[in-house]
Write a structure and sequence with these properties.
- The chain has helices at about 5-10, 15-25, 70-75, 100-125, 135-145, 180-185, 225-230, 240-245, 250-255, 290-305, and strands spanning about 5, 40-45, 45-55, 60-65, 80-85, 90-95, 130-135, 150-160, 170-175, 190, 210-215, 235, 285.
- By secondary structure, it is α/β, with parallel strands linked by helices.
- The model has no long low-confidence stretch (mean pLDDT about 95).
Length: about 325
Amino acid sequence: MTVTLDEKDVLALGPVAAVAAVREALAGGLDPDGDVPRAVVPLAHGQGLLMPSEYGGWYGVKVATVAPGNAARGLRRINATYLLHDSATLRPAALLDGVALTTLRTPAVSVALCLERLRALADGCGALRLVVYGAGPQGEGHVATVRAHVPVADVTVVTRRGGPSPGWADRHVAADDGGVAALVRRAEVVVTATSARPPVVDGRLVRDGAVVLAVGSHEPAVRELDSVLMGRATVLVESRATALREAGDVVMAIREGTLAPDALVTPADLTGARAAAPADRPLVVKTCGMGWQDLVVAVAAYRRKEGTRGGRG
């Protein structure tokens, strides 16, 4: 029987378990660079994305669409469905809400990749100050996921026009507000979760040792971070091949000569002699989203729903 997990079922897994699922998969030997690249299908009014992956006895695929014009219609920009299969029989085990899965797994990956750095920052200052570019689900999700793992003292949301402060933030300011620069300079964590095409952060403002979580761009000609920051920072990516193919923040910084391809750091690089990124440089965690991430979080959500560690539908 195929089990259905709606938005509530998926989000019930929670950020702590989602981060744990990502970290356990990486610690267990999952190689992100061995994952199947996502297929991007140009459509008349946006993009179609196909994201398959197989790992740990499971196969899954996310079918997503990105419709830039939907915002003007009052509709979601991204829609998605996820189908999880048992690898042994290839029978469908679960159908999951793909939007909720993306909302949960994206910040889980960001935090999983830099959790030690976040904890070290919190140990040093007691509680972290966050500046979040973007007031959508990913901005909110990143705040919730960081907050679930380390103390957070203050959250500022930055958008083009500003507006009322959402319940998960302390203030909401416009990008051209004169106080934004000071807020970025003092922040231990900066999150960029926007649909912007040019950079939204002035790389000169980010303090040494800060963490920057960049998730808004997955196209080589789109970026949220400028070359100044990419040249100053240790750049941690989920997969070197994916970053060089899809991450505009990385691709354009390399093209402009401020970042070398062999300077990119992957999760595997942080398991040996380079177990900690230099604390005197910003740490940029740049992710585009990969099929293995959806898979391991989908399996964790399915297992929670079934109430077993290894049950199959």
